[in-house]
Fold this sequence. Notes:
Helix content: under 10%
Radius of gyration: 19 Å
Shape: globular
Strand order of the largest sheet: 1-4-9-6-7
Structural class: mainly beta
Distance between the termini: 46 Å
Amino acid sequence: xxxxxxxxxxxxxxxxxxxxxxxxxxxxxxxxxxxxxxxxxxxxxxxxxxxxxxxxxxxxxxxxxxxxxxxxxxxxxxxxxxxxxxxxxxxxxxxxxxxxxxxxxxxxxxxxxxxxxxxxxxxxxxxxxxxxxxxxxxxxxxxxxxxxxxxxxxxxxxxxxxxxxxxxxxxxxxxxxxxxxxxxxxxxx
Length: 189
């Protein structure tokens, strides 16, 4: 809707179309305590992934693999402030939740930095072509997160198949802790 996008910010309230274009934005993805490393050279940006289901919460903006162009991974750095400016070293478990579009027969795997292995493999996820958004949850009990994994990342999602997979959200959480860094609530599996 060109007439509203070129007008004032208030003109967009009455837009008759979707305007997801902006100028002078900060580069990168929306992030808080979790930064994607070299996003444009290691993965591809996607928009309006699941247009058949406009009510879907995910997929308006996404990143994923672009195998034909050698973009096969999403690398992440956990902000040191999130971990109290020291490597985690397995002091407590953290959870990584990855929301992906289950389309085609692609596959992927989460790798992460541990004390004994800078590129520890987790469970391999294989798409089953349900054409729905799914969430994979990983509870890591031995994460180090000292930027020793590939590309100096703390963890990464890597292609293990021959079909592109698209991701909407990658979330990192830790259990609530007291000021002395003790877990105050139990972590569910």
